[in-house]
Design goal:
The chain is mostly beta strands. It has one domain: Pectate Lyase C-like. The radius of gyration is 28 Å and the shape is globular. 12% of the residues lie in helices and 43% in strands. The chain contains 1 helix and 19 strands.
Length: 250
Amino acid sequence: MTQDVSPTRRPIGAVRISSAALVGVVAAVLVPTAAAATAVAISGRVTGEHTTVAITPTGPITRVVVEDSDSDVFITGDAAATDARGQAEVQWKGVHGPRPVLHQSVADGVLTLSKDCSPGACGSIDITLRVPPGISVRAATSSGRIQVRNVAGGVDLTSLDGDLEAFGLGSGPASFTTTDGTVRAAFTGAPDRIAVSSGDGDVTITTDGRTPYYDNVTTTDGGQELGNVGDRYASREIDVTTTNGKVTIQ
């Protein structure tokens, strides 16, 4: 029988490295790393470009429509506002790279803000807008967050991955659609119908606290907490459909 004999290991003590040599090895490792970090920092500064564009439509506005793909949208109703005013933060890659363009148009009292990526590679256009409180809002984005405050004319908000937030809403119809984002909505008025469709995000609805609603809630894996004034015979209805999110109505 042949016996397998492992080779004898060399004692650790036989390997000697002087202090000076060790310092040289450490320096050789750290210097390229630091240089790489500096290159990344410089690269980040030169590839991320942005500019601010004013939003100044003309004529009376009764409705705002935002058509986008991956940007944040913030719209606030202001009792002192007589028209829509705001700004858009345009972002793109590369100093000389193609940039998205924000189109502004007003027709029959509807202000439409849309992003045009036709020149090529696109970036985000984050929108911040102040409007009269009586208007309605329809906004859609894929990855961005949408937040609407103090608007009485109704909202229709859609996002794929972003959160939807609406506070101080009036009695206009309210609709929220998202796949992975959360939905939070609070009302000072009493819409005839509040509709929410969410895939994995939680849903929280705060009513005016006194108006009865028929709560029509469907959830697969999420729980339910219904603390609002519920009435199965109420003329007003709250419809919520979610898969994994928790539903809270109060």
